[in-house]
Amino acid sequence: MQVDLVNVTTQDGVRLDGIWRKPEIENESKLGVDVVLLMHGVGGNFYGAGMFEDYSDTLLERGCAVLRVNNRGHDPISRVTVDEEPKRFGGAYEVIDECRADWKAWVDFAISKGYKQIALWGHSLGATKSIYYMAQEHDSRVKCVVAGSPPRFSYTAFSKMAEGKEFEEMAAYTQKLIDDGQPDYLVDSLNPYPVLVTAEVWVQKYGPEEKYNILKHIPNVRVPLLVLIGTQEEIDLMTFRGSRQEIEQLEGELGNLEFESIPGADHSYTLNNSREYVWKLVSSWL
User: Fold this and answer.
1) What distance in Å separates the CA atoms of residue 153 and residue 266, rounded to the nearest whole number?
2) What is the pLDDT of residue 28?
3) Which residues have CB under 8 Å from 195's CB, separation 6+?
4) What is the spatial distance between Cα 32 and Cα 201, in angstroms, rounded to a whole number?
5) What pLDDT score does 1 carry?
6) What is the chain's pLDDT, residue by residue, as a tens digit (286 residues)?
7) Cβ pair 234, 223 in contact under 8 A
8) Rounded to 5 degrees, what angle do the CA atoms 15, 19, 23 make?
9) Nearest CA among 244, 242, 237, 246 for reference residue 268
10) How is 144-188 classified by DSSP, letter by letter?
11) Where are the alpha helices (DSSP H) in the chain?
12) Is 181 exposed, middle or buried (0-12, 13-18, 19+ CB in 10 A)?
């Protein structure tokens, strides 16, 4: 497998790395787009094994180039030098709003290489960020978005679930840490999703403000948007419970939104041939 190692620097000075793969015959994509920007979820990265490794090969076979890249939420904890000062990033420290600079830098890169039909395909938090980016930036260079299992961050919904008491206790704990001047204290959270994050990041994602609730942002995405959620992850994870019904309601109201439920799929699409099923959905939709 031949790849080009590439990097970009965001407008706020963060270097991000990735790989760029080109089909053997360029300009003959059978998918309606000429490059797909693949964005990992919380704590992920471009070099790890996973579904995007599989999908990269199938995209190339259909004549479509691939940019499989890092955003600043890569790996659980990472260090980056910004303005000559070391700074902590990674899933534990990322501010979701800053994804706008990451996505823009990679779209800029794709444009600089001559691509004109760009698709975003994010998984998990990468899907939520892709929705957020397009809702906020309305980047006309992006032609469509595939959002694979975007978690819904809804304090109201989580509080009403069976685990609501434990969730509210975690919310109170993280807020107290912030009030006590310890916003960077790392907490090992189980609810609503098992993840290691700072108190400030936990409140940012799951707190009462619900700034990153995808249900608020989906109506503001102007390009074709495909949202996928597995039926098993709806059972396993609080962040997906109840999402399907609400997204299906939006689907009936929005002409650019299509929702598909993935039968038997867990969050990583490892069960019941889910990855093959997802590829058929995505390739047909593209």
Assistant:
1) 18
2) 80
3) 42, 43, 91, 189
4) 37
5) 59
6) 578 999 999 999 999 999 999 998 877 888 999 999 999 999 999 998 889 999 999 999 999 999 999 999 999 999 887 877 888 999 999 999 999 999 999 999 999 999 999 999 999 999 999 999 999 999 999 999 999 999 999 999 999 999 999 999 999 999 999 999 999 999 998 899 999 999 999 999 999 999 999 999 999 999 999 999 999 999 999 999 999 999 999 999 999 999 999 999 999 999 999 999 999 999 999 9
7) no
8) 150
9) 237
10) EEEEESPPP--HHHHHTSTTHHHHHHHHHHHHHHHHTT-TT-EEE
11) 51-61, 99-112, 125-137, 155-159, 164-179, 199-206, 214-217, 231-236, 243-253, 274-285
12) exposed
- Decide: helix, strand or coil at residue 114: coil
Q: Structure tokens of 54? A: 């599989």
In one letter, which amino acid is 33? V
- Rounded CA separation 212/57 (Å): 32
State both tokens at 109: 């890169």
Which residue matches tokens 């397009």?
A: 134
- Helix H or strand E encompassing 286: none
- 100 within 8 A of 108, measured Cβ to Cβ: no
Number of H helices, E strands in the chain: 10, 12
Tokens found for residue 202: 């936990």
- Report the SS3 class of residue 129: helix
The Cα 104–Cα 139 span in angstroms is 8
Q: Tokens 């892709």, residue?
A: 130
Residue 223, amino acid: V
User: What is the C-alpha radius of gyration for the chain, rounded to an integer number of angstroms?
Assistant: 18
- Phi-psi label, residue 3: left if phi above 0, alpha if psi -120 to 50, beta otherwise: beta
Q: Which residue has the tokens 């940019």?
A: 67
Per-residue model confidence (pLDDT) at position 83: 75
